[in-house]
């Protein structure tokens, strides 16, 4: 079996990880009027990809692939702990841990011969925290997906999930959502290219504005999402 079908399965926006309950700060911008339609949502999503996911998820996947190529699982567990420590907004940290654990559980079904089961054991033992990029990379590497394809699939899964949340919350129409997703194709490609040039020292280098919005969400009076 090739890598495409497993990647498609775990990249599905309907995957039961709980991602539909999280906006990762988008709702804060929606509440203050910064996001009010298709164009402004696309601008936020572009910034989220460029300024946060590139330097967390995308880079983490590349670093994890390098560790897995060396057969160094301890480096993978260290990377999990490092990403958790670098995620400052409390709601986002909780969200990534919850989604990461669910992704790992599902990953054991999709790729039972992978190290995802070892990751689940580390999570259950309290030695790791949980992050969707870590779980995704373990699965993608096991099924033979090239690192660039793994990063691309993971980032576009985030695009798809957040766009569906925007369709419900702003709201924008389904066709507008498809336009936004198509507009993100080159943004995802640029993010993959950038992630391939970064070092571990760049991990967690995100835009303060995005993190502040994610922190503000915790005290927002009315909320549709958990983050």
How would you characterize this protein structure?
The protein is an all-alpha fold. It has a single domain (4-12, 19-218), classed as Orthogonal Bundle (Urease accessory protein UreF). 68% of the residues lie in helices and 0% in strands. It is built from eleven helices and no strands. α3 (38-70) runs antiparallel to α4 (73-86), α3 (38-70) runs antiparallel to α8 and α3 (38-70) packs across α9 (174-183). It is globular, with a radius of gyration of 16 Å. The termini are far apart. The mean pLDDT is 94.
Largest sheet: none
Radius of gyration: 16 Å
Distance between the termini: 37 Å
Beta-strand residue fraction: under 5%
Number of domains: 1
Q: What series of H and E elements makes up the topology?
A: HHHHHHHHHHH
The average pLDDT score comes to: 94
Regarding CATH, which class?
A: Mainly Alpha
CATH superfamily: Urease accessory protein UreF
Number of strands: 0
């Amino acid at each position: 079996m090739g890598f495409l079908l497993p990647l498609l399965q775990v990249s599905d926006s309907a995957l039961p990880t709980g991602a539909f309950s999280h906006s990762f700060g988008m709702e804060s911008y929606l509440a203050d009027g910064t996001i009010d339609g298709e164009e402004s949502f696309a601008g936020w999503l572009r910034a989220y990809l460029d300024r946060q996911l590139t330097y967390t998820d995308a880079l983490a996947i590349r670093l994890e692939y390098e560790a897995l190529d060396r057969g160094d699982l301890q480096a993978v567990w260290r990377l999990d702990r490092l990403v958790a420590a670098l995620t400052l907004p409390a709601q986002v940290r909780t969200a990534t841990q919850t989604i990461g654990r669910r992704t790992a559980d599902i990953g054991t079904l999709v790729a039972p011969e992978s190290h995802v089961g070892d990751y689940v054991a580390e999570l259950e033992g309290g030695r790791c925290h949980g992050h969707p990029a870590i779980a995704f990379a373990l699965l993608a590497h096991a099924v033979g997906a090239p690192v660039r394809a793994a990063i691309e699939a993971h980032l576009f899964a985030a695009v798809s999930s957040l766009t569906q949340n925007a369709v419900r919350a702003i709201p924008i129409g389904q066709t507008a959502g498809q336009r936004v997703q198509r507009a993100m194709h080159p943004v995802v490609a640029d993010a993959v290219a950038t992630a391939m040039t970064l070092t571990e020292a760049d991990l967690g280098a995100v835009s303060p504005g995005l993190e502040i919005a994610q922190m503000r969400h915790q005290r927002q009076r009315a909320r549709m999402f958990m983050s």
